[in-house]
Amino acid sequence: MGKTIEIVRASIRRIMIDPRDYIIGFMILQILQWLVAIPILSFLFHRALSTAGMQGITDGNIGQLLHSPLAIILLVVLVLLLTVFIYYELGFYFLLADFQRKQQTFTYRTIFKQLNKKSKYFLSVHTLLFSLYFMLIVPVATVGVNSSFTEQLKVPDFIVDEVMTTTSGQILWLGLMVLLFYINLRLIFSIMFFVTGKDTTILQAMKKSWQLSRQNMLLLITVLGGIILSFTIVMTVLTTLILTPLLIVESTIKLSMPIFAGLTLTLIQILFFCGGAILQPLLAEALTSIGHNLEQPSLKKVERHLVRPKILGWLAEHKLLQALVIIGFIALCVSNYFTLQKTVYQPTTQIVAHRGYANKALENTITSMEKAAEAGADFVEMDIQQTKDGKFVVYHDATLSRLANRSGHIYNMNLDELVGIPIKNNQFTDEIPSFEAYLDRAKELKMKLLVEIKTHGHETKDMEERLVDLLRAKGVANDYIIHSLDRSSLERVLAYDPTITTSYILAMSIGRLPDVPMPYLGIEEFWMTSDLLKQAEEQGKGIMVWTVNKENLLHKYVRMNTFSLITNNVDKAIEVRNSYDKQKTLYERIQIIMERL
């Protein structure tokens, strides 16, 4: 523990000699990212799509992309360039730390020159190892430094949610996360050894990291954990100190001070920016100390060795910089003032209970629908499949194994064989219902349905017609929404009855939205962006985001005011939506905005 504290303290002390060096370095990287890296990557991506005759990628047309050799080549080049850009970003921090550790005089240009010298090693098949490490292992099991290029990468929540529905899935997922965490720890020194070793190859750096980390696993975990914990505490304390005056004024004096609130928000934004600029170098400092297995120099001997570019020195002494900083600060305060005025609105986002209220009853059962109705859901999403005798059953999986613990495919059984089969998941037990019985109960509850057609490839040719006829017979054909991943099935529904409301589900959506006749699109949360929402609005379509369970994401999409949120967490979703209907204090509005930082 003594070694851990020593490394953490020395790393913090080294950073705090002059944090401006790291903040300026962070700004340089951000400028290069937006002016160089992102335009190049964006050009290659859209060129690949254009080559394949596409405007966007969805799960329905990805095969078209894979059938274009030139598009594949362009995407491979994109991945390799992304790997190089990540190398420059992370390598910058490790070289900065290494120069400081060696107490050598250097400039930012010195760092980039050394990074350039090692770029020749990317003309090797070993580059693929870095690509896999940067884009698969690091984002999923983040330990220590991470790239801003891949920080948003994750396993889509709907996949995790499906895996976690069974005990075996939970064990498998936990085991996978532990394995990835372990691999990440063992390879955590790879970039450091690669950029600091004059003739070290990518493979040699990864091997060296694997060997060294075995001796320092506990030290690694405690040092990185200690830094992140310390950083979190400091940021929390500073944020609280900045917010406290506004909270006191609004809660005790009962005054609304939007200008003061704008100033408060600006200070918090500056704090978060500086914190983000310092955390990565801080982690790199600590890893460099552990990786080289050297004693930290005495804290009294730690000095500043970075020589800033002359232009920065001139600006620091020139009144122009001071004027620009003041003008920028005032402009940000004014912008935040107006932002705070627009933070509160009344969202119309519909809350859709995923497979009923699956957190309080067994999915796709009448009981689950009843629980959703009690909670106040606007819609219930549920799954139907056609049975062997051409009727419809409410069930998600293609087989009975997960919930009924028995063999059998839905398409190979008649409706009367399926209805009433006992099903169980975790603490819930129930039985499989027919779609007709489900419809009858939905009408009694006055609950609108989002009916998902699950195709298995064994449907009758007139399956869609039978479905529409059943909805007509129940008098709800124009009250419910039919959605599916199967575009051709939805097109057959519309061909039979154009008045039916439909939604096309996209498990993947990158680039331009597809041009489809359905008035709604179901976008998986992982792919959802404000740009997609804007595209949908331009096409006159509504967006249904699925499956959104985390509170911060519920807030995000309620603020975006998407047509609907499909969620397992119905109570929380309704609470989040309703929270925007009430009048909020400026303090509460700042808290909402902080969730986006």
* SS class: alpha/beta
Number of strands: 13
Computed CA radius of gyration, to the nearest angstrom: 28 Å
- Rounded to the nearest angstrom, the distance between the terminal CA atoms is 33 Å
> Which percent bin holds the helix content?
55-70%
SSE diagram, text form:
Layout: H1 2-16, H2 19-51, E1 56-58, H3 62-66, H4 69-102, H5 108-118, H6 127-140, H7 157-163, H8 167-186, H9 190-196, H10 202-215, H11 217-253, H12 258-291, H13 310-317, H14 319-342, E2 350-354, H15 366-375, E3 379-386, E4 392-394, H16 401-404, H17 415-418, E5 422-425, E6 428-431, H18 435-445, E7 448-453, H19 463-473, E8 481-484, H20 487-496, E9 501-506, E10 509-511, E11 520-524, H21 530-539, E12 542-546, H22 551-560, E13 564-567, H23 570-579, H24 586-594
Parallel strand pairs: 2-3, 2-13, 3-7, 7-8, 8-9, 9-11, 11-12, 12-13
Antiparallel strand pairs: 1-10, 3-4, 5-6
Helix pairs in contact: 1-11, 1-12, 2-4, 2-12, 4-5, 4-6, 4-9, 4-12, 6-8, 9-10, 11-12, 12-14, 12-24, 15-18, 22-23
